[in-house]
Design a protein that fits this description.
By secondary structure, the protein is mostly helical. It is built from 14 helices and 2 strands.
Amino acid sequence: MFYHLLYPLHTEYAFLNVFRYITFRTIYAVLTALVVSFLLGPAIIRWLQRLHIGQQIREEGPKSHQSKSGTPTMGGLMILIAVSLSTVLWADLTNRYVWLVLLATVGFGLIGFWDDYLKVVKRHSRGLTARYKFGLQVLVAAVIGAALASSPGFSTQITVPFMKHAHVDLGWFYAVFVILIVVGASNAVNLTDGLDGLAIGPIIVAATAYMIVAYVAGNRKIADYLLIPYVDGSGELAVFCGAMIGASLGFLWFNAYPATVFMGDVGSLPLGGALGVVAVISKHELLLLLVGGLFVIEALSVIFQVASFKSRGKRVFLMAPIHHHFELKGWEEPKVVVRFWIIAIILALLSLSTLKLR
């Protein structure tokens, strides 16, 4: 909005020329989302407390978590509002990619809200059934995938990290590939959200990495120099990633141990889904496996645990997802969180190195 209102005036007021620069608007998208989160946070927490919307802790979970029962959840609402508002204020709203990533954010956010509402307000312990929850996620991702696959000038090729000339054109199957990436990322983040600050820290790290990737992919000179696919218009997603970083930092202020609010599915599902869409649009889809490696590990730990128990009657971990395994091994919750953050940072740095190592 600011871009459209103020940049046209740069011919009369030269200092307004700064609004043409994605880097300038990204910085202020971060700050705007951060301020919005700080302002909304206390009000949303009080509202959730007043409505008695508190987290229900499973009895089979770690004993140390039982004291968290009743902590306000659905705090992801502040993230959704901060990200959406900041993006609308600072992004170029004529850019179709901005609207696609906002569609993912709001769409997955509504699915998460419905799931949380059923669990904590209607007291349906399982929330949305897996069929409906997964089906709605696939539907939103399918709309985005179809829009991209049919978008003029958008390549349906995928690239392989570390490989210069490895390009595979998926054609219309690309829409299915988008569904796998977006829905997979959304649920992987959801599984990681189990300790105070555990999921939101790696989200900040991953959003920062993709902010850089989106910017360089949308800059022809830099993209050609790095030998990565140039995607006209993808640089504007750096503004969205900046908004995600700011909103996540603001949420972390309230979610840091001991948390005064949890994000719930209304926060974790859209954050993962949005990351998946940014990865797809910036043509670094497979890189998400490395950038979000921590989320992948968490998801795989659940898959291996379930598969092992059903096939052999034995568990691979003391408890899944894997962060609970380390808790039961004796690690204090803050230690698990910080060490997982360190892993996320290392993986993000490795992923950025692929921009040059080809």
